[in-house]
Amino acid sequence: MNAILQEQQGGKRRSQLGKSDRRAGYLMLFPALLIIGAITIFPILYSMYMSFNHVTLTENGFQLQFNAGKNYDILIHSSVYWHSVEFTVMYAVVTVVVELVLGLLIALAVNNVQRLKNLSLVVMLIPWALITVISAQMWDYIYNGVYGILNYLLQSMHLIQSPVTWLGTSTSAIIAMMVADIWKTTPFVVIILLGGLQMIPEEYYEAAYMDGANRWQSFWKVTLPLLRGSIALAGLFRILQAFGVFDLPFVLTGGGPGDATQSLAILGYEILFQNLQFGRGSAIAVSTVLLVLFVCLVFLSAFRSLVKGEDA
Amino acid sequence: MKKLQKSAAMAVAMLSVGGLIAGCGTNQATTPTPTTTSSSQTHTINFANASGTIVWAAPPITHTGLRNALIAAFEKKYPKIKVQLQSQSNNTDTNRASLSTAIGGGSSTPDVYMGDVIWPAQFAHAQLALPLNTVLPASFWSRFSKGLVQGATYKGNVYAAPFFADSGFLYYRKDLLEKAHLPVPTTWAQLKQEAQELQKKGLVQYGFVWQGASYEGLTCDFQEYLADAGGSVLNAQGQPTIDSPQALKALDFMRSLITSGVSPTAEDTFQESESMNVFDQGKAAFLRNWTYAWANSQNPSDSQVVGKVGVTVLPSFNGGAGYSTIGGWDLYVNPHSKNLPADLAFINWMTGKQAQTILAVQFTELPTNAAVASSPEVQNVSPVFKLVNKMHFISRPDQTPNYPQISQALYTNVNAALSGTISPKKALKNAQQQMQQAVGSGGGL
Question: Which residues form the signal peptide (chain B) (predicted)?
Answer without folding.
Answer: 1-22
